[in-house]
Write a structure and sequence with these properties.
The protein is mainly alpha-helical. It has twelve helices and no strands. Helix 4 crosses helix 8.
């Protein structure tokens, strides 16, 4: 709680941040995003993922708008707000898909796949601009390939969780969306709180359109609504902290640290839902988590 409080003090303060503030904010975002994904995925087991995500974005917008208004800082430039809106539109849709993946499959298996792609694509984009990767990044790519194969390989007949795990394809698609969010939000400059507000306007817009397209019933029972509030609040706070860390530190450092959020989701799934994995899928899970920092280290 002390770290979280310190991060918000820095987020709302006009003074020059301490050199360790970006790292502290990124680490806090890991726990918030991990808990948000667990809440959103678990809530989507009882409700339509797009409806729950749209509702969570409304809650997130209300919370961050209050923070941004209390901060009283100037609005970012129009291009920055536009980049934030695009980032939120893609990221919000990807989040709904991700919640569906978490609800349909094992959280401990689907979460690392989205994190891997979310970290790998921005790194590849950076490589295209900055040059060839170093040996650690290459090692991370190899480890990621092995991890994905171990996670998605069919189990022998008769074993638990036989066949391809559910939700893998949706998790991969969500990972591409998360990567796009990172790349677009990197182009936005200005108040992290106002940028987060603009991103939530975009995310609500995209998920609301999806709700209308699929004609999902606009129903949420009380438990699902509660999980939506938790997921939305934690997600927007983590997003604001990531934006702050990105603006006051290095993008690769912010991505590498925050991409470790599946560890929190996996831990919650193991403790709360008693999820079990086969030996090789557990090895694949560990390899996936280990590959994230190696990939983004370049």
């Amino acid at each position: 709680m002390r770290v979280l409080t310190s991060c918000f003090v820095l987020l709302l303060s006009p003074v020059v941040p301490h050199q360790f503030a970006p790292v502290a904010c990124s680490v806090t975002a890991v726990f918030l995003w991990g808990a948000a994904d667990f809440a959103g995925g678990y809530g989507s087991r009882r409700a339509n993922a797009f409806v729950l995500t749209a509702f969570s974005h409304v809650c997130a917008f209300a919370l961050m708008f209050a923070i941004a208004f209390a901060q009283g800082g100037p609005l970012p430039s129009n291009p920055s707000m536009a980049w934030a809106f695009v980032a939120g539109s893609v990221g919000g849709f990807a989040l709904a898909i991700f919640y569906r993946a978490l609800a349909s499959g094992q959280m401990g298996l689907t979460a690392p796949i989205a994190a891997l792609l979310g970290a790998a694509i921005p790194t590849l984009a950076d490589i295209a601009v900055e040059g060839a990767p170093n040996r650690w990044t290459i090692t991370g790519f190899v480890l990621a390939i092995v991890a994905i194969w171990l996670i998605t390989r069919p189990e022998p007949e008769g074993k638990a969780n036989a066949g391809h795990p559910a939700g893998v394809g949706a998790a991969a698609l969500a990972g591409v969306g998360f990567a796009t969010f990172y790349l677009c939000i990197h182009r936005a400059h200005g108040s992290p709180a106002w940028i987060a507000v603009a991103s939530r306007v975009g995310s609500f817009t995209s998920t609301a359109i999806a709700v209308m397209v699929v004609r999902a019933p606009l129903r949420l029972d009380r438990p699902s609504a509660g999980f939506g509030v938790i997921a939305g609040s934690f997600d927007i706070l983590a997003s604001a902290l990531f934006i702050y860390a990105n603006q006051h530190g290095r993008l690769d450092e912010a991505v590498v640290i925050t991409s470790l959020y599946p560890a929190v989701t996996v831990l919650l799934a193991r403790v709360v839902l008693k999820e079990h994995f086969s030996r090789w899928r557990f090895v694949g899970l560990l390899a996936a988590l280990a590959a994230v920092p190696l990939i983004a280290a370049g």
